[in-house]
Amino acid sequence: MMIVMKEGATAEQIAHVVERIEEVGCSAHLSTGELLTVIGAIGDRDRVAALGLEMTDGVDHLVPILKPYKLASAQFKKGERTVVEIDGRRIGGDHFGLIAGPCTIESREQTLDVARVVNDAGATMLRGGAYKPRTSPYSFQGLGVAGLRLLQEAKDETGLPIVTELMDVRDVEDVVEVADVIQIGARNMQNYTLLTEAGRTGKAVLLKRGLSSTLDDLLMASEYVLKEGNPNVMLCERGIRTFETAYRFTLDLLAIPALRELTHLPIVVDPSHAPGRRDWVPAMSLAAAAAGADGVIVEVHNDPEHAICDGPQALPTSDFADYADQVRRVAEVAGKLVTA
Ligand code: PEP
Ligand code: MN
After folding, report:
1. Residue 23, in any domain of the structure
2. Closest residue by Cα to residue 295 from 82, 32, 109, 57
3. Which pairs from 83-87 meet CB under 8 Å and 24+ separation?
């Protein structure tokens, strides 16, 4: 249930409603907009209904949320869109985020080279995995803490906020020291203990869609993070499994307008993993921007031929400035600003 407070409702009135909701064993999530405060009551709907909150001082009206996801639903924010802001860099609403960097952190030279290039070209954030989910247990698994240190160095030098994957709750303390945005990989989208733990860190979360997950599954997964009181969740379409074998995954661009209708959360597109080859990455990026995505997260490497992981799909650093210009132009046509 959503309790919409009157314009000008006082802090005491809001606190009183929260108290009543909690008294019946439900949890209350506040969303404070410019004019209105909306309180999401999560739990047994009948118990909340029995409170008769429509008659309580400061309450304007009650709206039942029909979707199984509550805090993620577009209804919860009454049309307002979530903007995730880190160090003044914004993604969501009118702001388009250009997140770029290597698939995996390999070395100091590679990390700093890529970070400098993407920063000079106006990227919003730097991506890079220190913990990698690999299909084969015999493949390189990431540099771990040493990789996190390199990301920290790149951040200290460029000021770029860091997006990096958390794969295991046991690594959460190390990862939060460096990450501004915790990436939850496609294979972990339904790892609910990991989602809860990521939510508790208070860091922004980039939640990638599972390989075979529906948009409802994705939104329910986001609810695990949101319910921890962490409103900064970005959803990421990265390609799903279909019967098509001509490319690695099918990038589901329809997820963009569909999610825009269902949720207020920013929608980011990963144009790299579905094609699996770099020459198709610009087309998917421009299409994502044109379709109304709030950002892209793209793989870039200073020496793609020798990359340890995902080299064929990495844009070479030498191409990145041109690529960024094109994406920026299309994002602007779609009514967004790219903030570096
Ligand atoms: C990645 O971003 O490098 C990655 C492993 O992504 P996904 O979880 O979408 O496969
Ligand atoms: Mn990758």
Report:
1. yes
2. 82
3. 83/266, 84/181, 84/204, 84/232, 84/233, 84/234, 84/266, 86/125, 86/161, 86/180, 86/181, 86/204, 87/159, 87/161, 87/180
How many separate domains does the chain show? 2
Ligand 1: residue of 104, 163, 165 to mutate (most ligand atoms within 8 A of CB) is 165
Whether residue 283 sits in one domain with residue 205: yes
**What CATH number is given to the structural domain containing 218?**
3.20.20.70
Residues within a 6 A CB radius of ligand 1: 103, 129, 133, 185-187, 208, 238, 270, 273
Of 273, 281, 297, 308, best ligand 1 pocket probe by most atoms within 8 Å of the beta carbon: 273
* 280-294 pLDDT per residue, tens: 999 999 999 999 999
* Residue 70, in any domain of the structure: no
pLDDT tens-digit readout, 7-17: 999 999 999 99
